[in-house]
Amino acid sequence: MSGPLDICGIRLRGPVLNGSGTFDAIAARRTFGDALLEDFPFDAFVSKTITLAPREGNPPPRLWEAPAGMINSIGLPNKGLEGFVRHDLPELHELPVPLAVSVMGFSRDELAALVEEVGAREEVSLLELNVSCPNVETGLVMGADPAETGRAVERVRARTEKPLIVKLTPNATDPASVGAAAEAAGADALSLVNTLKGMALDPATGRPWLGTGAGGVSGPAVRAIALEQVREVSARVSIPVIGMGGIGSGRDAADFLLAGADCIAVGTESFRDPAAGRRVSRELTMLSRNERDFSPLRAG
Amino acid sequence: MSASEPRPRTLAPFGRRLAEVTANEGRGPYRLISALDRNGPDDPRPGQFYMLATAAGWGGVSGERPYLPRAFSFCRVRNGSDVRPTLDFLLEAIGPGTARLGAVEPGEEMWLTGPLGVGFTPPNGRPILVGGGIGVAPILCLHDELGTSVSVLLGFRSGAHAAVAALFPGEPAVVTDDGSVGRRALVTELLREELGAGDDATVYACGPPAMLEGVRAICAEREVPAQLALESGMACGFGACYGCVVPTRRGFLRLCVDGPVLDAADLESAIGPGAGH
User: Fold this and answer.
1) Does domain B17-116 match CATH 3.30.428.10?
2) Arithmetic mean of pLDDT over chain B
3) In the prediction, which pLDDT does B196 show?
4) What CATH number does residue A185 fall under?
5) CA B6 to chain CA mean position, Å
6) Closest listed residue to residue B202, CA positions, set B257, B248, B263, B117
7) Model ipTM?
């Protein structure tokens, strides 16, 4: 379950990625210096989602601590395609692992333009299509519906030869059908889950706490839900699946791999422990060595 | 990435680490917690902060929360032959995280990440230090660094809260909301008296949002530079979550990597959405 592997033809030293938007390698290097690169916590790095135009993000407050997790309403702040390519890409290229860039478009045209531009960059090994961010209305619409998702993937497929990962939203009636539609339209891999829609009330006023009213729940609170969605989706498709949702230990990671994932991602746990990715890898290696053979639920 | 930082920053070792709690003492309603940070740097900059969580009983044991670590400015760093470095934190139990941290026993271990963010920049002119309530924490270590000859103005809700002023060497000026210690006044009134127009001074302040906004407004009016240590709800402390942004004249800034100390001139107001929670 641990050790080097190939995902969509990209060689990874291990199966532990980060969830998009849960680790800013550039800010982390400002905080921790080059020690970050010497002990980089992930086997591939997934960027925060970029959009064509710069975005300031949602009005604060953006966070709320939930039972065994948190709710965020961040709103995809980013420098836009041009700013990303000019300022962030050279810095992300210095990371010691393959780079996946997450992109989101407000229309299929926009998504296609992003995929073409980003896919053409030699620094980029993989692209992830964010069709599932619950904080942006169109993201929800696109990823919640199999036909919409299929049309979007079909549209961008011809624009790049780089592997395309489609990130699924759990806020869909049938995520497995959305995943199957993405596969049929040419996706090379699927990742799931994004955050689940949630909200919190300000105890002082009884009004919604988050600046946008609602947000996305992550952390151990969503793990059981994510595990079942990973099992269901991976049973329906034959492309690789990257599983995530509240993973905080090697045991959690092993569960997702047994449920059918080919790789896993650490997200919210990195907020509690910046080096959580490395710890999860180590624990997974120990489990792989020590444990009796469990058979993955997914045939293959 | 090697671009020079505008403010002092001591880099943090990568990842979180365990630190042994060596003391937990009451200071009025506040707790003063000391932790031996054997594997951390001995030169964090005043204004920088750490993310803290107890190793045991942090969520899932005694209840559903806390889950995320909590951000605290260190209030003192002590480097003796056998206590190198010991970090002191001042906190008040107001929620599940601070309640758990406030009940920590000597000998227990705490998870700690830091030092994080950027601290105060050394002054050009005469430094004036202003602290309100629990916000005196980074003012204390700044005072340790600048020496005892600087002006220190402290404000507290009550005489009980003002017990923490005894941590300051020398004789800081203290006022309280109820007049039980010092004058019955806001600390911003002391600043108004201390600060002349065009004074060759730099003001350093940390405290509740309304106090910081008062400091900002007074300094803006008298054209005196001010550095304000702000607070915001924070999940990670190292720029990952984008949750702790505050609105500034330069757009949203992440308080954890671009602050927590900000130039007052960058702020329209020190009272942001969700401030003080």
Assistant:
1) no
2) 92
3) 78
4) 3.20.20.70
5) 19
6) B263
7) 0.91
